[in-house]
Amino acid sequence: MPKPPPQTILLFFSLYTFVTAATSASTVPTTLSLQFREAPEFYNSPECPSFNHGDTDTDDDNNMNKCSDNVVHVGMTLDAAYIRGSMAAVLSVLQHSSCPQDIIFHFVASASANASLLRATISASFPYLQFQLYRFDDGAVAGLISTSIRSALDCTLNYARSYLANILPLCVRKVVYLDSDIILVDDIAKLAATPLGDDSVLAAPEYCNANFTSYFTPTFWSNPSLSLTFANRKACYFNTGVMVIDLDRWRDGDYTTKIEEWMELQKRMRIYELGSLPPFLLVFAGNIAPVDHRWNQHGLGGDNFRGLCRDLHPGPGKV
Ligand SMILES: *[C@@H]1O[C@H](CO)[C@@H](O)[C@H](O)[C@H]1NC(C)=O
Ligand SMILES: *[C@@H]1O[C@H](CO)[C@@H](O)[C@H](O)[C@H]1NC(C)=O
Hints:
This protein has 319 residues and is of the alpha/beta class. The protein has 11 helices and 11 strands. It has a domain at 9-19 and 64-204 and 238-254 and 290-306: Alpha-Beta Complex (Spore Coat Polysaccharide Biosynthesis Protein SpsA, Chain A), CATH 3.90.550.
């Protein structure tokens, strides 16, 4: 039976996948001069599997919501330099959701960021948004980061995606991680419902035609014990800008530690050139659940480094 024509679901520009927050400290404004319009309230459609949203302002309700498996938990980083992208991303998620009141955003900000300013900015534009803001202790990860070929990738907040299982409350069991430079044009609940199978920890669009070799250095491939990492895996490149993560499985497998171990090795011997992505490939490539490519139309930003510009995926696109 022929497959239905693909409809583009969402679009990305994703060399930025690694570049969540790149601006150097000296250029990050300490107060935001940007003002954003207030978004309207978005309402659930009658089909939503929702609970009572009438009185979410008590602590009990907030706690219930914060932990519910019936909502879509979205994880994003938040910082002053990229806040315009984040605002657009949040709005796009709400606009295209059938159940926008069943979405909780979990924003991760640098410990050095002005959290009250970030919180106030979000609240002013999205007065009805259910969200939490977490401080990411980036001092800890800073010591693990070795300089990449793109300085933008070295920002500590770029690594927050590796720590979501530690940062988010234990009761949050699944999260959709999104980079700050994305615009969704379909319902995030569909993405969140991606089956993870019996044992996948995360789901993401895979690119098995990408030259996997090029993501690691000759030092890596020429070291027998290191290159064995991929020996029994059908490892394909995947982009970490859009991921569905089973946080329970992540915590059970202590994958944060596994990623950190690769980062420690990278500090001693250079096994890759990019930032937060390669450790994900080392730990997960070949063992992830696939997501339709339309959920990450990446490459639109024009990744000119080594001519890695990507073609659009088939199907109509909307950015
Ligand atoms: C943080 O932002 C608030 C505005 O929301 C401002 O009043 C405060 O001075 C800022 N704090 C710092 C340390 O910059
Ligand atoms: C894949 O990348 C490696 C290292 O960058 C290169 O040596 C090799 O020729 C590439 N293979 C193909 C098929 O392009």
